[in-house]
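Lecture notes, structural biology module. Today: joint structure prediction for complexes of four components.
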Amino acid sequence: MLEIRHLRTLSALRSAGSLVRAAQLLNLTQSALSHQIKLLEDRYGGPLFERKTVPIGFTATGARLLRLADTLLPEIEQAERDVARLSQGDQGQLRVALECHTCFDWLMPVMDEFRQRWPEVEIDLVSGFHSEPCDLLRAGNADLVIGSNYASEFATFPLFRFEILTVMALKHKLQAKRRLQAADFEGETLITYPVPEARIDLIREVLKPAGIHYQRRTAELTVAVLQLVASRRGVAALPNWAIKNYVDYDYVSARPVGDQGLWSDLFVSVPDALRQKAFVLDFVNVIREQCARTLDGIELLS
Amino acid sequence: MLEIRHLRTLSALRSAGSLVRAAQLLNLTQSALSHQIKLLEDRYGGPLFERKTVPIGFTATGARLLRLADTLLPEIEQAERDVARLSQGDQGQLRVALECHTCFDWLMPVMDEFRQRWPEVEIDLVSGFHSEPCDLLRAGNADLVIGSNYASEFATFPLFRFEILTVMALKHKLQAKRRLQAADFEGETLITYPVPEARIDLIREVLKPAGIHYQRRTAELTVAVLQLVASRRGVAALPNWAIKNYVDYDYVSARPVGDQGLWSDLFVSVPDALRQKAFVLDFVNVIREQCARTLDGIELLS
DNA sequence: TCTTAACTTGAAAGATTTTCATATAAAACC
DNA sequence: GGTTTTATATGAAAATCTTTCAAGTTAAGA
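The predicted structure, tokenised, for the full assembly:
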């Protein structure tokens, strides 16, 4: 019998373009999806999509079911939000603090979508820069932090993992190397956001441990950082998704750091009082879904 | 996680008015539904309906989910019909023959609904009266028979069971009895449809075995039979659902026959070639659903 | 007060779904 | 042209979820 689960699978299959990647989206194995699809195909008496083409192509039957999914899934989500509103009376506020500066880049569209879904919840960015956003939570000056380190006193929800690349001007001397090592940064100028050194992964994880000397120069916005980099004032360490376009259009070039690359995991943290709130869970969902769709080269966590 | 199954349960719960009867509709135990609902209530954090009132009343949460069911279930059925059309190319014809005369009463709205759902299928009633409708199937002059006896050579699908009551004029002498026995019919005139005696349950099952003498008089339409009964020309044996209104408005009165009552089961029979056709299965569904909704005092089979 | 009808509940049984381990097959790479 | 890599399939075992069974509870009605 057709179930909502199957519609989600089809929908994921379209976004992902293959069974393997769809399985990751759904936190299932590829085998599970293969079995699921086989069941549907038995039931409907024919294949739902062509395999082994990238991306897969849906058959007429598959496309019709996909259209059903497109109709049903948003209705279901809407209904579940309505139910949450009914039972939790969800007016509330959500003051969001960011640990990771670059996250501004995707946060605005996420907040727009969230406002549509939860008109009664007042969502705002906590402005100004803070050495330790979790302190804002403790002090009750923020309700939710998006960041990579999380204190066990808060409820946390995994978002995604991404690689931090070193960005440099075209024809920079380090461009010759495929991967950069700590020693390569000796004497370089780092362009960073204006935050403490401890909050800059490249410094904390790589340069400090290796005792490398470097200069720092700061800029507030990602574009400003990139301008400085492009005009040869220094190098920067930024998320792959934040710089993809600039690299693709040969404005700057990027190299991984160390043998494994430098990776960062993002989480949402909220005080325990908010952990059950439907609008908080949905905020996390909106982030995960929009980022998975919009940002290249990230991996959803958990 | 919410599944389509749950929406069907809620929908059945509304039609049925209680868990016990909803369970019958769905061919599940009442306990299964109780567990199902409990799961939903845990998930949504509150009751979905008030118990132990007849009929049950839905809470705001329950009503919202029910509204979701009302949106989703028809979409799903539509999509599945579309898929069946895609894979089976279902233009076809469906010549329907009736064994049970009274069934005309509900067949017309069923056929209307069916024509909406399957515009490419030409559905028609095989007109004229036939001693044995199954012969029409064998001869290839009909595609589907609705009747109570079924030959094993055909694929059959259960519809419903109903009680056949004896109908008599008000103040008829037999009205004094709560239940009629074979001997009570001695010397009476039976008003029947113009079909062979073997096809009239009361005669075949009760009067013949007991060797009772009776007269017969025939009429083609149910209203005509009832007119004759009301004007004291004789008694008739008709399905409970066919006469309910006439009894309720004191136009005639009705009594069960024998200690168990006289019951009849209805089936759909089709030749093997049609048994898999989606439009045939859906025709059966439309009958079952519409009759369950419209006809009083029937029991869905299987 | 006893009976009945409607629902709940915990444990066992039954189904279904998922994973694991492995197979196959096409495409990409050297 | 062979070797890897990538994508999917499959059977059996494991895990999970759903349903049934067998009482148990509760409220209304006789």
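Point to remember: The first strand of chain A starts at residue 49 and ends at 50.
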